[in-house]
Amino acid sequence: MDQLAQAAALYYRNFAAVAAERDLTLMQGKMLSLLRRPMPMRALADLLACDASNVTGIVDRLGARGLVRREADPSDRRVKMVMLTEEGEETVRQIRSELMSNLTGLESLGEEDRHAFQRLLSQVLPAVST
Amino acid sequence: MDQLAQAAALYYRNFAAVAAERDLTLMQGKMLSLLRRPMPMRALADLLACDASNVTGIVDRLGARGLVRREADPSDRRVKMVMLTEEGEETVRQIRSELMSNLTGLESLGEEDRHAFQRLLSQVLPAVST
DNA sequence: TATTGTTATACTCTATAACTATA
DNA sequence: TATAGTTATAGAGTATAACAATA
């Protein structure tokens, strides 16, 4: 229990540090990481667990830096799809690779331990859609 | 790796929800939880991984609600010790107990799985002091 | 000189409420 | 009527820089 708290703290401290190196806030880094494919603003709000009105500002700031862009959805003209630009894609690649190399603990595990870890997490994570 | 991200997201989502029920922000809840014993402002800044100037405001707001108080340190008159009030202690007890009951996953594990989990976490947590 | 805590400042995140344009 | 996104607003977190008091 305390270990879960520490693991969570470690993960976010690491994530925030990696993002900060690129002048990104935690939320900006999270949003970029979520955009594996184009997504409506609304979906981003759900995944980031924040109000839809906040997404406007975050996308604005990332857009001003050329990391994401909005595009109209032909099938529903209310919807705006958000997607990474080329530069955004590259930034996400860098973040992911640095996250990996900072948290090498899991990668250095044997097969058996890794499976035990995943089994345990699946019990603790009944309702996570991220 | 992705599982660690999900576990961290789950933990903080749960923590923030429990804190919000008591009209506390995530940082306010974190600070209360850290105050197992009186602590200088400076130590809180280190544990919360934020600038010392932020601690002033957070302690101010918690103090205005009667959950913490400052006290002079006789041995170094620059230092102010922050400690929980009686109401603060009770709030922390409630938060802890609700966190536990929400994340029952770990508690329901068998001995073997629990040990595997702790062994894994200890590999991922080389530098966590919280 | 260095450290502790505060203040001032500017920016970001946050929820709420009111608005528009679509559906 | 309901939904997607925006805007306005107020409160909270954030780092930086400058400051007073103390070491």
Structure notes:
The structure is a homodimer of 130-residue chains. The radius of gyration of chain A is 17 Å and the shape is elongated. The model of chain A is unreliable at 125-130 (pLDDT under 50). In chain A, helix 1 (2-20) packs across helix 5 (86-102) and helix 3 packs across helix 4. Chain A has 130 residues and is mainly alpha-helical. Chain A has a single domain, classed as Arc Repressor Mutant, subunit A (Orthogonal Bundle). Chain A has helices at residues 2-20, 26-34, 41-48, 52-64, 86-102, 111-124, and strands at residues 39-40, 68-72, 80-84. In chain A, strand 2 and strand 3 form a beta hairpin. Helices cover 62% and strands 9% of the residues of chain A. The interface between A and B is large, with 36 and 36 residues. The structure holds a DNA duplex (23 and 23 nucleotides).
CATH superfamily of chain A: Winged helix-like DNA-binding domain superfamily/Winged helix DNA-binding domain
Percent range for β-strand residues of chain A: 5-15%
Beta strands of chain A, count? 3
| Most extensive chain interface and residues per partner | A-B, 36 and 36 residues
Mean pLDDT value of chain A: 85
Order of helices and strands of chain A: HHEHHEEHH
The portion of residues assigned to helices of chain A is 55-70%
Give the oligomeric state of the chains in this entry, treating copies of one chain as homo and distinct chains as hetero.
homodimer
Residue windows where pLDDT falls under 50 for at least 5 positions of chain A: 125-130
Q: Label the overall shape of chain A.
A: elongated
Number of domains of chain A: 1
Number of continuous helical runs of chain A: 6
Distance between the termini of chain A: 21 Å
Q: Could you tell me the radius of gyration of chain A in angstroms?
A: 17 Å
* CATH architecture label of chain A: Orthogonal Bundle
By CATH reckoning, the class of chain A would read Mainly Alpha
Structural classification of chain A:
mainly alpha
Largest sheet of chain A: 3 strands, antiparallel
